[in-house]
Structures are given as structure tokens and as C-alpha cells.
Description:
The protein is mainly beta. It has three domains: 3-18 and 180-369, no CATH class; 31-68, no CATH class; 92-177, Lipocalin (Beta Barrel). The chain is 2% helix and 41% strand. The protein has one helix and 24 strands. Strands 1, 10, 11, 12, 13, 14, 15, 16 and 17 form a nine-stranded antiparallel β-sheet that branches. Strands 2-3-4-5-6-7-8-9 form an eight-stranded antiparallel barrel. Strand 8 and strand 9 form a beta hairpin.
Amino acid sequence: MLRVLKLGYAAAALSALLVAGCGGGIGNSDAVCSDFRYQQDAQAAYADGATQLDRDGDGVACEDLASRPSGGGGGGVGGGTGGTEVPPAPEYNLMSALGEVTALVSASSGQYIMSVWGPFGSVSNMGPLGGGGSDGSTQVSNNFIGVRYGSRSYDLVPSWSNHGHSLQSSGIGGIGFVPDSRPLAAIAGIYRAIGQTCQQGRSPCVPVVGTLVVFDRGTMWICVNQDAEKGQCTAPLVFPVTRSGSDPQGMFTLDHYSARLLSSSSGSLAVSYQDTYESAENRNPTFQRTTWFGVLHESSDVVPLDASIFEGFTNTGTLARSPASSWTLQDDVPMQGFRRDASGRLALRGANGQLVTWTAEDGLQTFVRR
């Protein structure tokens, strides 16, 4: 049995801390920005009464969407395949499925500074590195380190990274966020999440599901295998959440030298932390890292896993379509909002265009709807 050496636990009534303002999210009854290809179509829907398209209240719907190219047709709800492809934004904060955080900042046309937060909290700055594109994705790299990211759905991108090895080697998938300067109170809420825990010297990683609660007063609870929305969080893992002036926009520190939280304005987050355990058979401390990809609970309550086109990366960095819509999954297993099949594959879909999956073959992955 494992004994926790670091990271304290707190036991208290969840209902006492779920204060007004902790909720919020993306409605299911109205169109959301990921339903549209071009900003003009979202603006028309907003004028017709769609209430979820102007989150900052300035009267402009889905400002991150591209404008329809001159002479281009198509678009509208469903994000058709016609028209001109618009490349993703030049700057992202990325988190891999193993918890590594990478920030890309544009240095000049086609050049980027890459900052990498390693597993022990150290930061390495590299660049300028060159950027280019292939197979519909963007790559920023030199000969031995690089990240790739794919088409954007609202303010999210699927990503892939390979650090310290040949770019022809296998890497790891992840998720990218458009940098966002909002305070912690703006992302407060309850998130459903799929994660994986990877122990040092042991393979493979194992999946976890749960709910993550972000409080506007600077605390985060992680409720493993429990639904905080239903008050089921009897022994949460508790992190004070802070922000350093040197952190990129949209990144928070979880009061732990190697714990980070990345957030989006569309209702997604990524969290990773490392702790130290002692096992009965080995008295030497063992490191393990847990990484979660999650969506606000309102955005995952009744979102079907339909035949929409989702894109993510294979472990070799090739942009691929998700096969999840062909899986035979049971709804609300192992908890409400999640889906699982007999072989243990897991899926969680948000209304903001994100699909999170876990499989024994590929581990934790994220996809976005095109």
C-alpha cells in the first residue's frame, strides 16, 4: 500500500466551499463558438439570440474565429470543410500528457522563443526557433527539440512534443491554450477530467477520472473517482493556487515546485503535479506524476459522442482523426458525463469542441473538433 509523503489532504464539507460564483460555464441549449467556422456566421447567430457567443460582453461574437475569406463560401453551424484553412495563432501555452509545459512566443515572422518547464520546475528558454507547417499542423523546432500543434477549435489546439530526442522518435500528445490574462476567479468552477498517473520506473501509466474544483479565493481540490457536483469529495487533494509575474498568461502554480495549471476561456483546463510515494516493497521514495485534461461540468453533461470530425496527434506527431466516434461506449461510466467501453477506453467530450480520451495503447490524449 502506498503512503503519501508529500501533499496534504483536507477533509471538509464540500458544500461549505461551493460559493456563488464558483460555477458558470457553457450552456448546452445555445450554439457555442466551436459550432462555427467563421466569425461572421457566429455574429449572425448572436444577433438571432444565441447567448453563449460573447463571453466578454463587448457585442462581438467569437472574436477568436477567423473572418470568412474574400469570395469564400460555406461555414455556418457544423464547421463545414469548404473555404480556406486559417492557421492557428502564433502563441500558445502547451501541456503534454506527461505534464511538461511549453510556452511559445512569437519572436519575429516565422520565429519563436520556446520556454519549457521541466518535471522539476526548471525553465529552459530556447530560440529563436524556426516554424513551419506540414500535414495541416504547425511545427516549431530545431534538430532535437520541438512541438507541433494542429487546427484550432475556439481557443484550444491538439499538440505534440518531443524534447531531447530526434524529432523522428515517438513523442507525446498534449493540449494547447491561447494565452489568457483572466484571473483565477474567471475560471472558478467544477471540471470533469480524465487523467493518468505515471510512476517512475514503472510502465504503463494508469488512468484516473474525477472532478477538479477551482475556487475563486485561490484553492483547487482534486476529487479522484468522486463527483464534486454531487457533493462526493470526502478526501480531496488540496492545492493553494498562486500566480507569478514571470508565468505566462493563463498559467498558475499549485504551490508545489512542479505543479502547474493551464486554463482557457472556453471551459477547459490542464493540470499536472508530481508527488513522492513510498511502497511497501521499496522504502526509497518514488516519484509519480499525474496529469489531468478537463472540461467544465456544464459543458460535458449531455454532449453526445457523435460522428463529428476530431483531430489530434499520433505518438509520432502525425495529425490524425480520432476513432472515438466508432467506439462502443457506455454512457455515464464510471461517473456521470464520462464514457467507457469493455476494454477500458475512456472518453469525455465538452461543448467547446474538446474530446479527451485514454486508451491503453496511447494513454491520455486530447482532440479538437474541426
